[in-house]
Amino acid sequence: MYGGQFIGGPYTVTWNGTALGMAQGDAGVPQLLFRHFIRWVENTDQKGDARLGGFFRGTRGRFTMRCQEYKAATIAAAWPFGGGQGLIPQVGQDVYTLAQPLVLTAVAGTPAAINAAPASLTAAKALISADYDIALLFGPVLRELPLDMDLMPFLSGSADALYAFT
Q: Domain for residue 5, yes or no?
């Protein structure tokens, strides 16, 4: 292979200590996404719409995967509010306390478990994203369960973190 450093390989994914099972390949594989927020200094009376600077306002993290297995663990991750799937749960619940650890672990013996790839990634506080439509297929097709989770900050050592590597 060309002399670059290329890393691939599967990770197991657990939420609240329970395996979420296989993920769809390509677009459905587990993905970590993040976005930085900046409040720009622009639209001024003297410089118009020119960006003159800005203030960093924080970072949001998300995790997404398309589960190929429709089972208790994936349903619990998609419906963490209690009351059972399809029932309206108690309103007013503190979502930070409902958020559970999301752990990705490189499968032993794969390139993901060696080199510069993290052996594992832990987001101590992950919960299904708000306003995320979960589409369940009913019919002669595989019932996949797409998950999109928000990562909430937690204390990792002495710093706030969305996730930590090992």
A: no
